[in-house]
């Protein structure tokens, strides 16, 4: 079985972490002795490419991407291009037209990794942030210079869009995911006390959908309280579903609590499977450490594991996750986790573990 992957390394550390993930996939393919193959096509769309050509994605680029089974993305962002230009030019230019409306971001605690949360007697912590990935605060609606009154008086408007269908599909997705987990619980996050339209609609849809899942425990928590809960009572979490902005922030908090932003994986899914899904580490291009070869590849490698899940290769995905645990458990850690290993050394340590499983 051959799976075709479009890889987009992008900017900064994107290239080195994507290379790490592809190295791991290559190992999976070799071990399968021909049963599984990955056919990877690289797309050079980056900020450098944008500065040269005036666009991130050329005409016909999305049609090219659509021919693949999945997209493997590094990161985009550089000092030479405004961040909103690069993010809308490349990342959102894929997630929006490909209707990748479900973004899942597991918060994973690894053996051997110091976490500000974990105490010796802690039960295993493990939860998933489900992010609404198509509307909400990132719908891109609004405008600048609305007052018409000149310098010093500018008015800008940034609107959130919440549709009943959009709320319902992501909330159902969260409930279905919860059913596959040991702890069947969904925590819904809004700020409906202050934002009385869209977030109240979300709360109402959540309450209605919950009736279809009597076997799943539920709670509705305001986003400020949920941030505190992440730190104080993470053992109460299993699936956390939230809007685009809230889940974006909460998932960075989750990965920091697990030890580092460099650990966090994500999948931008089009669950209807009309378009390919996109797999990427949660972190950005990390310009402060770019070019040094010291970035943590675990977020990108775990994202590749989520891609294996999407391909139905669950055993292989679990083996990759086990290999990561074995490597960190053996004390092999990248710099951001207080270790000594550079990107290639960390990747090879994971490959070595994978070969032994
Ligand atoms: P960032 O995630 O790039 O970096 C934040 C901090 O975490 C930095 O100190 C960085 O060195 C560290 N870090 C991140 N990933 C790491 C890894 N794998 N190993 C070790 N350390 C790691 O976020 P920041 O600094 O806010 O943004 C930098 C650029 O990335 C901006 O242009 C931003 O727009 C872009 N960005 C792109 C994203 C994407 O493509 N999906 C997501 C977030 C930011
Ligand atoms: Mg983010």
UniProtKB/TrEMBL annotation:
Query: In terms of domain of life, where is this protein from?
Result: Bacteria
- Extract the PROSITE patterns matched here: IDH_IMDH (PS00470)
Keyword Metal-binding (UniProt)? yes
Enumerate the catalysed reactions.
(R)-malate + NAD(+) = pyruvate + CO2 + NADH
Checking Gene3D superfamilies in the record gives: Isopropylmalate Dehydrogenase
GO-annotated molecular function: tartrate dehydrogenase activity
Specify the taxonomic lineage. Answer: Bacteria, Bacillati, Actinomycetota, Actinomycetes, Micrococcales
NCBIfam families from the UniProt entry: TTC
Class in the EC hierarchy, top level = oxidoreductase
Question: What EC number(s) is this enzyme filed under?
Answer: 1.1.1.83
Q: Where is the Isopropylmalate dehydrogenase-like domain?
A: 4-350
- Keywords from the named record: Manganese, Metal-binding, NAD, Oxidoreductase
Required co-factors: Mg(2+); Mn(2+)
Identify this protein by name: D-malate dehydrogenase (decarboxylating)
Organism for this UniProt entry: Brevibacterium spongiae
Which family does this protein fall into? Belongs to the isocitrate and isopropylmalate dehydrogenases family.
């Amino acid at each position: 079985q051959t799976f075709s992957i479009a890889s987009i390394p992008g900017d900064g550390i994107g290239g080195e972490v994507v290379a790490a993930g592809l190295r791991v996939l290559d190992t999976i393919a070799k071990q399968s002795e021909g049963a599984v193959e990955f056919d990877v096509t690289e797309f050079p769309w980056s900020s450098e490419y944008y500065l040269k050509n005036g666009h991130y994605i050329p005409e016909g680029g999305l049609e090219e991407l659509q021919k693949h089974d999945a997209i493997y993305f590094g990161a985009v962002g550089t000092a030479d291009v405004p961040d909103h230009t690069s993010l809308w030019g490349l990342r959102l230019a894929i997630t929006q037209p490909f209707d990748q409306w479900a973004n899942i971001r597991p918060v994973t605690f690894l053996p051997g990794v110091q976490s500000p949360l974990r105490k010796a007697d802690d039960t295993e912590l493990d939860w998933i942030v489900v992010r609404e990935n198509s509307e909400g605060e990132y719908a891109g609606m609004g405008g600048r210079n609305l007052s018409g009154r000149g310098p010093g008086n500018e008015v800008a408007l940034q609107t959130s869009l919440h549709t009943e269908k959009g709320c319902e599909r992501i909330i159902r997705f969260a409930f279905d995911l919860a059913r596959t987990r040991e702890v069947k619980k969904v925590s819904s996050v809004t700020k409906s006390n202050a934002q009385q339209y869209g977030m109240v609609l979300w709360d109402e849809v959540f309450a209605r959908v919950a009736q279809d899942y009597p076997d799943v425990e539920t709670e509705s928590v305001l986003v400020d309280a949920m941030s505190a809960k992440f730190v104080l009572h993470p053992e109460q979490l299993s699936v956390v579903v939230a809007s685009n902005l809230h889940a974006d922030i909460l998932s960075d908090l989750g990965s920091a609590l697990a030890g580092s932003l460099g650990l966090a994986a994500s999948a931008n899914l089009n669950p209807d499977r009309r378009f390919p899904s996109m797999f990427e580490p949660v972190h950005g291009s990390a310009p402060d450490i770019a070019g040094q070869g010291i970035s943590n590849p675990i977020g990108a490698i775990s994202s590749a594991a989520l891609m294996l899940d999407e391909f139905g290769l669950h055993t292989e995905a679990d083996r990759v996750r086990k290999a990561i645990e074995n490597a960190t458990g053996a004390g092999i850690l990248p710099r951001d986790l207080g270790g000594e290993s550079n990107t290639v050394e960390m990747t090879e340590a994971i490959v070595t573990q994978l070969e032994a499983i």
